[in-house]
Each structure stands twice: as C-alpha cells, then as structure tokens.
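Input.
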Amino acid sequence: MGGIEQVINQIARGANKLGVDTDVLSLTADRDARTIEIDGYLAHRARLDFQLASTGFSASAFLRFFQLAKKADVIHYHFPWPFMDMVHFVTRIKKPTLVTYHSDIIRQEHLLKLYRPLKRKFLASMDRIVATSPNYLATSDVLRIFSNKVSVIPIGLDKSTYPLPMPDRLKYWSEKFGPKFFLFVGVIRYYKGLHILVEAAQETNYPIVIVGAGPIEQELKAQAEKLGLKNIHFLGRLPDTDKVALLTLCYGVVFPSHLRSEAFGISLLEGAMYGKPMISSEIGTGTTFINIENETGLVVPPSDPLALRQAMRYLWEHPEIAAEMGKRAEDRYWNYFTADKMVEEYVKLYRELAGK
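Output.
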C-alpha cells in the first residue's frame, strides 16, 4: 500500500469497528478483478484499462460505482483522481458526498488547464471537503476557494497494525549499518527530493539508508555512483518486518520532499510514531504539521543540499538533543495522529452527512 491506500485502509477498518460498513472501489491491473475482504471491509476492484498522466481509467468502474453508490448512505471520494470526477457526474447518484483532498495537482500543468473546469465543478458539488492538515488548507489556492465547507482531519496511523520488530531482523540490520544511521522510507518519485539528499551526502560519512523503489531509482543510483558515495544504501522494497526493524534502529528520519506534491508524508509520520527526530523541508504542506521546527526535528528550505547536510550534521553531533526531539515527536503522534482520532472524526462527519 502507498500512502493514500494506507489512509483508506485505516479509515475503512476503523470505521467498521464503530458500526460503519465500508465498500472501497479501486482499480487493478490484475486479470482477476474480484471483490476481496480486507480487515473487515470489502474491497471492490474494477479492471484498469489504461493510464493517462498517472490517472487510471476503467470502463467497468462506471457500473461498479453505480451499483455500490445506490446502496450507500454516504459517498467518500479521494482527490486527485480526475477519472472519478467523471464517474461522479455520469452516474448522477444523488447521495451525501465528501472528498478528502490529498494534494493539489502540481506536475501536469498543461493538462490541468483542460481539467480545471471539471475539477472545480466536482469540488463545488461536494457537501464537505476534508483537508489533511491546517498547513495545506492555508497554502492551497484551490482549497481557499471552498474554505466555507472545508474541515481539517489529520491523517492518522494505528501502530498496533504494524508488526513487532523481530530480534533476528534487528540483529541483521544493526550489524549491517551500525548503531547510527539516517533513514528514508517511501516510493522513489520525482517530488521526494532524494537527489537533494544524495547531493547533501557529499563530504559526510553518515550511513544513509533508502528503503523503497520507484520511477527514478536507477537515476538516483547513477547519481550516487557518479559522486563516489559509499555511505548511501539503496535497499529497494522490503517487507514490513524489515521496515519496522529499520525504523526502530535508525538514528533519525530524513524526508527531503521539495514539492507540494508531497501533501502530508505518511513515512514521516511513521518516523514520529517510532520516536525519531526528523528532518524535512518547508513546502507549506502537512510535513511541517508533523515535524515542528526545533521541537520534533529540523526543518530546512526545499532544494537546499547544504542546509540538509548541516541539519544532518547537527543531529549527528548532538545526540541528547536528537533524543529529546524524538521523544517529543512520539508524544505529538499520540496526541494528534492516531488512527482512532482520525476515524472518529470521519465517522462523526459520515453521521452528520447521512443525517442530512
């Protein structure tokens, strides 16, 4: 599961415990597009026909959505997914609706000009829009237009759903990277700022571990090789048991995303959940709602390798301060970012909309 899939899973499984039956509709490239049960809710998978500009399209999704929506009391969308805007209007289902607004559309500037009228019509038709942080609400031109119907519900995680770190995996990774290393976890995409991290790693000997795979993985490996860096370790995709072991062992979490496409930062929140000091960039999104400057970690300007290097050096050379930041990060997770808190707010919203 990627970040948004993780959020949907947490909402659906948590709402189920509070008496809300949830059906989730998504697309799949698998030939077997059947309905399966996950964590007490039903996941309906329509066949993915093709993708355009990172947006999945499916002819069969129209009927599947129509059938599911007719039975529902409330329809909950997740934005951005332009195809679902079309489905919403074509099927003409008149039910209470809300949408979780995960991110502005940043990269497809030319296509955005064509999509903008549909996007505004879709958002205008929603009964409620949910932003995932006050930071994003304050900095999004789109959300500002609809601010009268925007609620803020921060993303939350349920630590009990994560596996316990196994002694053999803790021993393996500890022997491999030593007692102190920085960790990045996530899909390796253009907006994650990992090219900045690679550049920042020059003139340092801090072990930096990168967990995840993605479209620019080979490009980053080539960059690190060209710079002759021996302290960056690309591990690719790993099972959750290994990810949890690395989160448990790491000295700090580095999250150098430099564009607003990074609207929240699930793996940054995982760092807080495991009590780690964090380094992130100020991009006006939820990353700086999770990581508070000089409280839970350090915040640097985006696309600034020197500032990122200095932040890593500061944490590395001040272990007592780093440990205090990590403790405050974990406290902040328990106070603001648990799945229970998120789910309670969504279920309250569901009941309010259904009551109308």
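The longest helix spans residues 319-336.
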